[in-house]
Structures are given as structure tokens and as C-alpha cells.
Write a structure and sequence with these properties.
This is Putative cyclic nucleotide-binding protein. Keywords: Ion channel, Ion transport, Ligand-gated ion channel, Signal, Transport. One of its GO terms (cellular component) is membrane. This protein is mainly alpha-helical and about 100 residues long. It is built from four helices and no strands. The protein has one domain. Helix content is about 75%, strand content about 0%. It starts with a helix and ends in a 10-residue tail after the last helix.
Length: about 100
């Protein structure tokens, strides 16, 4: 009887801490992945010299998306942006910082 009780205590102890360890490892891996993706996004914006107002809009959108979906899809980064931010970013990338659409419209 004592042996059965000790075995159950040992079993549940290892079951609990084994699951806890798995959970912590997955949490650490996910946060590392998120930091890498954030760094890639910042490097992308720096490489194409995206202006501050577009960077701010992109960061705000990503923050809102993260809060809603708890995750970010970097595979289709530009395609996943809302149409207005994507259009402004593409205009900037194609025509450069000196080009103003407001003068035409």
C-alpha cells in the first residue's frame, strides 16, 4: 500500500514537472523566434529606408495583430499589411522618399 502511494506521488511529480519543462521550452523557443522575426522586420525597414511614419504604422499594425492573433506571419510580410499601408510602402519603395502623392492628388 505504501509502495503504491509513493509510486503515485512520484509519477504525478514527474508528470507535472515534465509537462512544465515542455511548456517552458516551447515558450522560450517561441519568444526567441519572435525576437528574430522582429529583428528581420527592423532590418528590412532599415535596408529600404522606410520613413518613420510608415515604420510607426507597420509597428502599430504588427502590435495589434499580435494582440489579436498571438503571432506574426513573416513569410508574407508585405502582403499581410492592410491595403493602405502596403500601398504607401510600395509607393515609397518604388518612387523614393522625395516623391509626393499629395501633390498629384
Amino acid at each position: 500500500m505504501l509502495f503504491s502511494f509513493l509510486f503515485l506521488v512520484w509519477y504525478y511529480f514527474h508528470l507535472f514537472f515534465g509537462n512544465m519543462q515542455t511548456y517552458l521550452q516551447s515558450k522560450t523557443a517561441r519568444s526567441t523566434e519572435m525576437r528574430v522575426k522582429e529583428r528581420e522586420r527592423e532590418h528590412w525597414m532599415a535596408f529600404y529606408t522606410i520613413p518613420q511614419h510608415l515604420k510607426k504604422r507597420i509597428r502599430e499594425y504588427r502590435k495589434d495583430q499580435w494582440q489579436e492573433n498571438i503571432g506574426i506571419n513573416m513569410d508574407n510580410f508585405l502582403l499581410s499589411l492592410p491595403r493602405d499601408i502596403r500601398t504607401d510602402t510600395k509607393r515609397y519603395l518604388c518612387f523614393g522618399p522625395g516623391y509626393s502623392w499629395s501633390a498629384i492628388l
